[in-house]
Every structure is written in C-alpha cells, then in structure tokens.
Amino acid sequence: MNNINNRYKSVKKASILGIIGNVFLLIIKGAIGIISNSQAMIADALNSASDIFASIMTFIGNKIASIPSDDDHNLGHGKAEYIYSLLISIAMILMAIKTLYDSLLSLIIRNNYTFSIWLIIVCLITIIIKFSLYIYTNKLSKKYNNVLIKANSKDHRNDCIITLFNLIAAILSIYNIYFIDGVVGALISIWIILTGIKIFKESYDVLMDKSIDEETKNKVYTIISKHPEIKKVTNFNSTPIGYRYQISLIIYVDGNLTTFESHKIADKVEKEIKKEIEEIYLAIIHVNPTKIKSNSPK
Q: 0.85 cut: is pTM over it?
C-alpha cells in the first residue's frame, strides 16, 4: 500500500513541476516566437501549451486514479490514468495538425523571420529545463510503470531533441538560411502527431481490456510451477485495472484431496502472486479435481 501511495505522490509532484516549467517556457517561447516571427519557435511554444495541458491532465488523472475502491467502483479508479492519457494524446494531435499547417504555409510563401540572440537563449533554457524534467520523470516511469508519467517523460525527451533542431534553425538564420525554420516547425508537428498516436494506442489498449503481457503471464506460471500439487492450469484470463491487472484461472489438483486442502493450495498461490508480482492487483483461482499426474502447470 505504501508503494501505491508513494506512486501517486511522486506522479503528483512530477505533474506540478511539469506545469510550472511549461508555463515558464510557453511565455518566453511565445514572446520571442511572435517578435521574431519564427514558425519553429511558435510551434515550440504551442508544444509547451500542449505540455501544460498534458501536465494538468496528469495531475487530475492521477488524483482520480488514487481514489480507493468503493461500492460503485469495486475495482478502484485506476483506469482514470488511461482516460486522461487518451485526452492528452487527442489534444497533442489536434494542436500538431494546426502547427504543421502553419509551418508548411510559411515554406510556401517563404516567410522570413528576424534573427534574435534571444532565440538561441530560449532554446538553451528549454533544453536545460526539459532534460532535467526528462531525467526525473523517466526515473519515476521506470519505477512505477505509470502511463501518464511515461507519456510526460517521452514528451520531455522529444522536446529536448526538437528544441535542438530549433536551435540549429536559429543559428542558420544568421546566414540568411530561413527555409530550415519552416522545415523544423513541420518536423516538430509530425513528431508530436506520432507521439500522440502512440500514447492514444497504449491508452486505448488498456481501456479495451487488452490482455496481460506474456512476461507477466510467465511470472504467474513460474509461481504455479513451484507447487507440484497443481497438475494443470486452464482458462487464464486478465483484465486491466489502471496500471495493474486482475487475473483469473483454473487449477487442477488431485481429486482425492479434501475441499479444504485444495482451496488452501489456491489461497496460497493467490497470496504469492499478489506478493511477488506488482502488476497483479487481484488473483482469483478456481479449483477443479483431476486424475492427471503430470506436474507441468501449462
């Protein structure tokens, strides 16, 4: 339980830091982008705006997901993470499409912009802030396997790369090479669209009850294999509950065992699965009698 509480507190802190950092970046990027008429910087500013929205959605989704199970939601509110990450992905895609249109338009009409040393300064500030946020959120993502913070981590990483190209475009403008600005703006937009699609698919899979991954499933079978009393396993089913899963399966044991003995085996395996596998929220094991002598659980 402490691990779960720490998970929600850490994600809350990361989302707040993301909001503060991106609000600051939106202001300086937007101001310099408009003054210099740089499509790449304006696209980067809009990207920061989408990042603010993403951080707010992360905060709200994490808060709802942290609510314990109740009479109306017996399995908790964990799927809120994926609902809000779905909203993040849609907002990212829509904003990126608009930015892509503006960038391509600037290439067609050859809209030059005024170079400013502030373009370079803003790029450097952005890279420092975003790389710091990436290191922090990437660490949390690996530790807690949270789709919301994972999406934020990828976004921070992408922003570092995107802003690096933006910096290159600003430097090239000194030599009157302006078309790179529109190209970078377009590439930023395409990158955001692809990232949004990936997050959308990951969230959609969970909301549509995608089965547990093979690695975690094999962990369950490994635990079962430690119990020679279990002769066979069938009907392995799983349902995602936020970042964790509820699983159910049928085990076959010697039919000569008493009801108490056979269910004692099932109870022991259920407890071991929950204790040893973080991804499992609840394990439900049904017991059937059998005369099969094989010790293989599969």
A: no
